[in-house]
Write a structure and sequence with these properties.
By secondary structure, the chain is mainly α. It contains 3 helices and no strands. Helix 1 crosses helix 2.
Length: 63
């Protein structure tokens, strides 16, 4: 399991902190983990890397 650090730009971190607090999360980390888990769930049923790319494009994450 990855237990490293992910760096965020200052303005993004401030947005995360604001949303985490407003949403009642115990920490910004808990909020970010929840968001990532929710987004990954949209991709987990893909049968191939190509299907993942297609879904990411459909979700607007990549061009």
């Amino acid at each position: 399991m990855f237990n490293g650090t992910i760096k965020l730009k200052k303005d993004l971190l401030q947005r995360v902190e604001r949303c985490a607090k407003a949403g009642g999360y115990s920490s910004p980390q808990e909020f970010v983990e929840h968001i990532i888990e929710r987004e990954l769930a949209k991709l987990e049923d893909a049968q191939s890397d190509e299907e993942i790319v297609k879904k990411l494009k459909g979700l607007g994450y990549i061009d």
